[in-house]
Model the fold of this input.
Amino acid sequence: MFYEDLSPYAYGDEGDAFSDLTDGMRFVSFQPDYERLNIGWLESGRPWTSGPAPEGFIGRLLAIVDAQQVNATLGLHECDLCPAPLPDSHPWYVPRAGNLRTSAGSGEIRVPGPHGTAFAAPHLIGHYVADHGYLPPQPFIDAVFAFDPHGLWPAKFPGVRFPWIPGDAALRHIDEE
Ligand SMILES: [Zn+2]
Done:
C-alpha cells in the first residue's frame, strides 16, 4: 500500500491501538489528539527517496521498530521492492539472505513529531531503510533522533513505549473483548 510521505494518515478511523507485550496480549486503544503523518509506505512503481542515512539513524529507527507494536491486527504486509516474492518455504519473520531485517511485517510505529503530530510508519520501514536505502524526509529523521522509545512513560502502561497516551485510556487484555 502506498501513501505519500508526510500526507495525513487515513487508515480508517479506528484510532491507535498500542500493544503491551510485557504481560501477555494487552493493548490500549484511543482516539489520538495528535495528527498522524504518513512515512515510509513504499510501493514498487511509486517514487521514493534514497540516499545515505545520517550516522546512527538506522540504529535509532530499528530500536523504535523493535519497541513498538501499533495497530498490529491489520495483517501481514510484504515488501514489493524486493526482487521476488518470498517463497512459501521462507518464514516471513526471517530476513532474506544479505538483509538486516525481515521483508514482511505487520503493524506500525508512532514517532512523536513537532506541534501535536506523530509520524505513522509501517514496521517494514526498518527493512526499507536498512536494506533498500530508503531515506525518509528530514523532519522524520529529526524526530527519530529526538525520541527515546525506552523513556519513562506512566507505569500504568509499562510496555507501551509512547508518551502521548491519554490518562483515561484503559489497558485491556485481548480476551476481555
Ligand atoms: Zn524489500
User: Anything to note?
Assistant: The mean pLDDT is 90.
